[in-house]
From TrEMBL, chains A, B:
Protein name: Pyridoxamine 5'-phosphate oxidase
Coiled-coil annotated residue ranges, if any: none
One Gene Ontology MF term: FMN binding
Superkingdom as given in the UniProt entry: Bacteria
Domain Pyridoxamine 5'-phosphate oxidase Alr4036 family FMN-binding: from-to ranges: 4-96
NCBIfam families linked: PPOX_FMN_cyano (TIGR04026)
Pfam name, any one: Pyridox_oxase_2
Ranges that cross the membrane: none
InterPro entries recorded: Pyridox_Oxase_Alr4036_FMN-bd, Pyridox_Oxase_FMN-dep_Alr4036, Split_barrel_FMN-bd
Length: 194, 194
């Protein structure tokens, strides 16, 4: 596999905005079971090795996992505040659950778990997200799970972009490019009106 | 009409993050004609007077307008970097086009146009957004349109939330609330597990 052509401007944006921890936060849109959109902030956890797929983590108990099971499509919107540029990444979503039958992806799932902070790992031991608040504070202050083996509800979420749009607000006028993966799996780049 | 209960924490977030111009940027998800999600950054232009509807501006030539005509639903995701909190606002979208038959909403459309900067107004005079790039730089350097009357392709986009979720990452543990508009148009607030 070769690096997609949008990887280079994205790497540049990540580098130039690295002083801001939230430069790794992006908004992921999916579609709900009732056909309405859903949208939430997620954290970029690097690319899956040897691929152009973005790694995100999620909890099997979260709504997005059941949304993705039904409609495996997402668009991420990633705005970099310092360089004032936006990437939109539309593509297929795959949830690597504890019983996903692919050993190399299970390895990636374990690796991302190991790279999380104790704080991030702890959230997977918290009570059911999105349910009525458990008022007992102790439910949220358990010892952090061990880094060697992920909890069963920990999932690796992969976004495989098929179309990427890059908008630079700083241009005069603004610059906008679109990258599309064609049927032969080749990326086609075009310059568009902003 | 009374202020929805989520208006107060949202006003507070806007106030505390006001030093950052991008605190008024949010990501709006819609659904494409093919059923896949779309997601892009938009700018918050205040609330429609006497309502809980968020004002956004858009171009009738943009893809989101045709998406909304078919599926009038959106979820905005608004992350405030300084206070580390997120609002998700799910609701109905209405596009106030030049021929929308409601004089008070046309008045709101004109008012928002007048409040835009010359630079923002100019974009509505640019060549078709999302089409093959017009290379002639002069196409993007026209004199700005007059503030008194909006260009015909200028639209006011209204988001009327029915469900709002507020997540504070700074809590120990995090705090998460959900506000739902019930059948009697009353907001019900609940505290949820983060």
């Amino acid at each position: 596999m070769s690096l997609a052509p949008w990887r280079s401007p994205l790497s540049r944006a990540l580098h130039l905005n690295r002083s801001q921890p939230y430069s790794r936060y992006l908004q992921l849109a999916t579609v709900r079971k009732d056909g309405r959109p859903a949208n939430r902030t997620v954290v970029f956890r690097g690319f899956l090795e040897g691929s152009n797929q973005l790694q995100i983590v999620t909890d099997s108990r979260s709504e997005k996992v059941s949304q993705i099971e039904e409609r495996p499509w997402g668009e991420a919107c990633w705005y970099f505040t310092k360089t004032r540029e936006q990437f939109r990444l539309l593509g297929n979503l795959t949830v690597i659950t504890v019983d996903y039958p692919d050993e190399s992806l299970q390895k990636a799932r374990r690796l991302v778990w190991q790279q999380l902070s104790d704080g991030a790992r702890s959230q997977f031991a918290w009570p059911d997200p999105g349910q009525k608040r458990v008022e007992k504070a102790s439910a949220f202050s358990l010892p952090p799970p061990l880094p060697n083996e992920p909890l069963a509800n920990f999932c690796l979420l992969l976004l495989a972009p098929e179309r990427v749009e890059h908008l630079e607000l700083r241009g005069e006028p603004q610059n906008r490019w679109q990258y599309d993966l064609d049927d032969s799996q080749i990326w086609i780049a075009r310059s568009l009106n902003p």
